[in-house]
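Project outcomes to date are best conveyed with an example. Our students and postdoctoral researchers have been running inverse folding experiments weekly, and each run begins with a structure described purely in tokens. The record below, which covers 505 residues, was selected by the lab manager from last quarter's runs and is presented without edits.
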């Protein structure tokens, strides 16, 4: 209700008061002057806040008779339903009420089964199987109205129950977005296998039935019958943190991607398909003509480069690279040079370009067209990053999340030898770069980078630079480091130290 209170307070304080006298019965507050159409729109804005509990519709209906009548007569206010741990009777009561009052409106469903105090034992989770069965018992009769479904779990059992109880669905005409997430990256680690073994047999999504309007799918740690799951005509696909022993074959994976010719955003985090010599002899390339954004998280770099080498992404504009091995094996640190080196050596200027049958040269992953780049937990040498950044002449926005110092060093201007020239020339990688976001980066290196790029003259200075502190407290406002950052035009985010907080009090 915080958003709602802010909106109400705004209207109460900003609407002009009437110049005529009214009794308390005629008007109690400026809010009473607002027509029903505008008030209903305000209620809709409240529900657009993802942090707002969908059950706030019920709270709105309890304020006064007018608001109750307006809320009950607005079916869209009841179209969001959430079940969150711990499951309580009120959630079921509200769900039944919302299903009735939402009429024929398409439904947005959230089922969050995660327990913050879970002890990582698969069989000892506090979210019991009967909870999931009871939730679906309420929701399944309205499957024809599902618009979006988001299921978050710690363990496999709730997702398995969802797949089992929905396999007989043959009519989800409004479903546009589906997210099934087993939020446990551990299973993507090297040598890990799918658990529990008793639930390992795959189930096809919706029994293999086609959801005609389904365009956005996220599968995180999810094991499906890949052959018989009808995943096609997607625009967004996230494929994350799967165990090695339950991956789709390369042929199945390629068929899934190529049956979505308008796919725009693809995330592969951890592992993609099985790559074996036989399948690689059959599938030699995966062409995604409409893909504009690729997020690629790697654990094994040999596997990662082999998978990347299959893609042809002529429309690529955004690229994200993450060393996921730091997530699943936090005690180990690997150098990412193999991935970075493959990417820059695959560019036409550094290799013999290959061609379509008509002879037109192509570039499988055209880094020169990328305008937005995100690097997370990536480590390598300054030389490797220098060669890598040389391939991004049109890069506008760069995000560096927990990367090594060498990333910032590689963006520094560098001298260019000019034969017979009396004056030294200065070059700059990523000359179009305007926006730089850094998380937990070296503050002094960032100040030096921003300063050096602002004075060389051959490129425009960075326009927006942000440094956010996450692992450590940000510098105090009165510290020399904070002052240097601020004077350089760098925005500083993060929580201050406890000493600064106590001083302000």
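After processing, the design step wrote out the following sequence:
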């Amino acid at each position: 209700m915080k958003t709602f209170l802010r909106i109400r307070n705004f209207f109460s304080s900003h609407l002009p008061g009437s110049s005529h006298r009214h009794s308390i019965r005629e008007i109690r507050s400026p809010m009473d002057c607002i027509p029903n159409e505008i008030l209903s729109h305000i209620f809709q804005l409240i529900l657009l806040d993802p942090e707002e509990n969908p059950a706030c519709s019920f709270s709105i209906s309890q304020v006064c008779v007018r608001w109750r009548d307006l809320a009950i007569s607005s079916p869209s206010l009841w179209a969001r339903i959430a079940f969150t741990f711990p499951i309580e009777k009120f959630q079921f009561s509200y769900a039944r009420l919302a299903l009735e009052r939402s009429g024929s409106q398409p439904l947005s469903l959230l089922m969050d089964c995660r327990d913050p105090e879970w002890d990582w034992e698969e069989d000892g989770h506090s979210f019991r199987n009967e909870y999931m069965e009871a939730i679906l018992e309420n929701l399944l009769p309205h499957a024809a109205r599902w618009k979006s479904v988001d299921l978050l779990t710690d363990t496999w059992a709730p997702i398995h129950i969802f797949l089992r109880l929905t396999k007989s669905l043959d009519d989800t005409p409004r479903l546009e977005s589906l997210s099934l997430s087993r939020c446990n990256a551990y299973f993507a680690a090297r040598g890990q296998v799918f658990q529990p073994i008793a639930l390992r047999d795959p189930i096809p999504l919706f029994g293999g039935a086609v959801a005609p309007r389904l365009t956005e799918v996220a599968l995180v740690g999810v094991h499906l019958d890949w052959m018989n799951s009808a995943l096609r005509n997607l625009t967004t696909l996230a494929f994350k943190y799967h165990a090695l022993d339950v991956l789709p074959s390369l042929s199945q994976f390629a068929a899934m991607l190529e049956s979505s010719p308008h796919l725009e955003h693809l995330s592969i985090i951890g592992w993609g398909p099985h790559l074996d010599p036989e399948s690689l002899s059959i599938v030699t390339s995966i062409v995604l003509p409409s893909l504009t954004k690729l997020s690629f998280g790697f654990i094994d770099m040999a596997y990662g480069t082999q998978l990347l080498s299959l893609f042809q992404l002529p429309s690529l504009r955004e690229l994200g690279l993450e060393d996921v091995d730091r997530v699943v094996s936090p005690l180990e640190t690997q150098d990412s040079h193999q991935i970075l080196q493959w990417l820059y050596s695959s560019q036409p200027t550094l290799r013999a370009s290959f061609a379509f049958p008509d002879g037109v040269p192509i570039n499988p992953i055209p880094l020169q067209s990328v305008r937005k780049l995100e690097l997370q937990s990536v480590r390598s040498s300054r030389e490797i990053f220098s060669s890598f950044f040389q391939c991004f002449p049109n890069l506008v926005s760069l995000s560096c999340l927990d990367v090594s110092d060498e990333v910032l060093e590689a963006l520094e201007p560098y001298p260019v030898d000019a034969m017979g020239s009396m004056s030294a020339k200065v070059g700059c990688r990523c000359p179009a770069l305007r926006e730089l976001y850094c998380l937990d980066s070296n503050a002094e290196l960032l100040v030096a980078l921003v300063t050096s790029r602002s004075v060389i003259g051959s490129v425009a200075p960075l326009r927006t630079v942000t440094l956010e502190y996450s692992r450590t407290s940000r510098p105090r406002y009165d510290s020399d480091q904070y002052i240097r950052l601020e004077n350089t035009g760098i925005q500083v985010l993060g929580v201050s130290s406890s000493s600064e907080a106590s001083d302000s009090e």
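The chain has a mean pLDDT of 85. Residues 170 and 209 are 6 Å apart (CA to CA). The training component of this project remains on track.
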